[in-house]
Amino acid sequence: MKKRYGSRTLRHEQTKVMAHSEELEGFESEEAFDDSVETTGSYSRRDKSEGGLTRTREKAPRILAADWFFIALVSFALSLTFYALPLFNFQPVGVQSQYLYSGMAMQSGLVPYNDFWGAGGLVFYVINWIGHFGQTTWLLYFFQLFALFVSGVQVYRLILQRTHSRLAARITAGFTLVSIAGLAQGGTSPTLLALPFALWALQFLDRYLRQDVRDEAFIFFGMSGAFALVISPVMTVLWLLSALALFIFNIKNKRIGRGFYQLLATLFGVLLVGYTVAFYALNAQVLYTSIEQSIIIPLTSLGFTANLWMSLLKSIVFLLVFGLAANFVHGILNIKKSGQTFVWQVLQLIGSVAVLFFVLFSPVFESSNLLALLPLLLLFVSDTLQEAVNQRRNVLQQYMKAKLFAPILALFFVIGAPFVSQWMNRQVFSEEQQVAQHVKADTTRDDRVLAIAADKNINLRAQRVASLGVFPSYYPIGFHQNFDLVFANAENKYVIVQSGQELSDSVQRTLQDLYEKVEISNVSQFSVYKKK
């Protein structure tokens, strides 16, 4: 009896092993089928009428809890360098301070584009306005942290979708987050908030070109493009190239009907966002001025400037340190392996060159605009990672080689840049602090303080806003003439002028007639004027 019982147990164990092996074989065959479909495709009855090629749809890759935690941890560590974080006393410079100032100004009732200039989209300033509720920037910091986190998640999904390797996805996501934080100018830039939409659109388009997606999903594709436009217009380069790539792809695969349906779905998504934003813009009376300052002026002011060579040098450094140049080279080298995505990859390379020219020939160099290159060049490094995964080589080592070990430099850059900036501008920041303390002690929140300076740190530190905006020098002359006309009647209790700032004759006469100069000890780079 014991022997018979033992044999029954043995037969039961053998049955379980056989069932498990059959399950594994079925899983492997299913994966092989998916891979073969992704490469060759299969015809469906619906597409035979169009002569097109339809591939099986795969489910979106699932992210494990450990991966969520990893991306969140890296995002939080990098966000400690953001200027909106109130815990640290990092001071922004240039346009970064202007972006940070915009939310505080809107909380005081000022209107973007009318009362102060703005290079970002209208929704970007709405986010800054909400982020300054409670007279603090904590909420704005969480918005920026969330944008960084979502960008990391999208990069992880995209690389996992292409390489089927969680290690490759984790490595790429981690170092890409470093690049994003380094290019985002302390988190204040519009491109950071628009980046999650661009990365989602990139993942969506990659799935469509390789595996196919439902046409109805193009509604969300259009909505993402519209959101990017009203946050950071420069990011919409991806959607413009995508439209051309989809047109060529659908024509080539004889998907005329589907292509037209996708166009309608995309336009519907654009209109859903566009009408909502347009209603707000009309109510705030900034519809034309928002388009003028965020789109028209940046394009019409392109040209050769005295800072061109310095912009070129800075661009080269950023492209090398953050691995964008390496991605571009990999894109050129792997272009022959692109298969049916050949047109899309060529357009990505052309678009990246166009964005680089935009950055170079802009009157003021902004490293944050280089973030628009990231969605265009991100996919090219995945081909190298795919080869490393297939050949069972060290993925981290191959990633470092592909990037010329630039991620290590990028990490040091992100950590050290805030401290270097504070040290290099320590004298200016110190004087700004002294002026801000004096102004804050002698004014109330209802008083207006105008700072004609390279940044808005005096207004930020004193928690006082100006009654009118000081426009950049490259703005059309009409803006500067209007400033001169309004300045004489502006209700500014204090006017602070930084040395080196050019003032028109009418502004100088107004300062002499209506203001008296105030001396502040240990302040030599700022002239402080108080209204008589």
Automatic annotation (TrEMBL):
Biased composition range(s): Acidic residues: 24-37
Biased composition regions of type Basic and acidic residues, renumbered to the chain: 44-53
Keywords (A to Z) from UniProt: Membrane, Transmembrane, Transmembrane helix
The UniProt record lists the keyword Phosphoprotein: no
Transmembrane segments: 63-85, 138-159, 171-198, 218-248, 260-282, 308-329, 341-361, 405-424
Residue segments, region Disordered: 20-53
Protein name: Glycosyltransferase
Native organism: Lactococcus ileimucosae
